[in-house]
Design a protein that fits this description.
The chain is mostly helical. It has 13 helices and no strands. α5 runs parallel beside α11, α8 runs antiparallel to α9 and α9 crosses α10.
């Protein structure tokens, strides 16, 4: 992979990551055309996703700060409750316990944790299958078709009203399962999670926010998994430099794209993305048999 190819992939990642059209599907098509190895291709995808993950953290920094604050407050309240249990056993008077899930952000923390568990499990056990899927163009083609169908269906569902406090953990589990399926190229992670959120009755603004927030632990986990696999990869210094350049290009492109794309997603119909994914699937399948 040349530096020009790396920069182009980073540019493509920065544009497609924040739309429900599968950035991994686009990357897989180009990686197959350029005859890149599937295992190192996954490592490249991980580097590119780290670049756009930084952008997501920047765009949702106020929510992330509040989540981290409430996360530590939960531990403090848990410590207080343990102390209270000991105190109540020793004294005649009874102190009240503190409620651990006392606001929307605390509920959001537990929802994100529940959604992350099935995604981690699927990502770990499906890694070898994903490598096989990245070595051909038929798999991303099928993935694009799946994304197209789901986006088309969800566009006909009425807007929901659910916020964190009115969302059950079973719904969070379902969303995590949908996100886990998106490890396959062509299946859009954002498209899958938005579909699951909207079908489960989330309002559109919260569905978007939740879809991006649960991507943070998912991508972080995928990064740690790939770092464990590094000794099995033979990566030259120049290739590592190209990976870094690709990640930087993805971050810079994503920085300028994320806010206008979020506004676009809040107001536009998903059927436009469905049509795009349908034609992208046709292109991928056609290239699979023609190249």
């Amino acid at each position: 992979m040349s530096l020009i190819q790396a920069l182009f992939l980073g540019f493509l990642q920065g544009i497609t990551e924040f739309l429900p059209i599968s950035s991994s599907g686009h990357l897989t098509i180009l990686q197959n055309i350029w005859n890149m190895d599937g295992a190192t291709g996954i490592l490249l995808d991980t580097c590119l996703h780290i670049g756009t993950l930084i952008v997501v953290c920047f765009a949702f920094q106020s929510d992330i700060k509040r989540i981290l604050l409430e996360f530590f407050r939960i531990f403090y309240d848990l410590y207080y409750n343990v102390h209270t249990i000991i105190y109540n056993r020793k004294q005649s008077e009874v102190k009240r316990y503190r409620k651990l899930i006392s606001n929307n952000y605390r509920k959001l923390i537990f929802l994100i944790l529940v959604s992350t568990i099935p995604t981690y499990i699927q990502g770990y056990f499906l890694r070898d299958s994903v490598i096989l899927a990245q070595n051909n163009l038929l798999a991303p083609g099928i993935g694009f078709f799946i994304t197209a169908v789901l986006l088309f269906i969800v566009d006909f569902f009425p807007a929901g009203k659910k916020i964190p406090n009115s969302t059950s953990y079973s719904i969070a589990l379902i969303i995590g399962l949908f996100q886990g399926i998106s490890v396959f190229p062509g299946v859009s992670r954002l498209g899958m999670t938005l579909t699951a959120c909207l079908l489960c009755g989330f309002n559109r603004k919260f569905a978007l926010k939740y879809s991006f927030l649960i991507s943070i632990p998912a991508i972080t986990g995928a990064t740690l998994l790939e770092l464990r696999q590094l000794p099995s990869h033979s990566i030259s210094l120049s290739l590592a430099g190209n990976y870094l350049a690709a990640a930087i290009a993805a971050a810079i492109t994503g920085f300028f794209c994320i806010r206008p794309m979020l506004r676009f997603l809040r107001n536009k119909k998903f059927r436009f993305f469905s049509i795009y994914c349908f034609f992208a699937g046709i292109l991928a399948v056609a290239c699979n048999f023609l190249l």
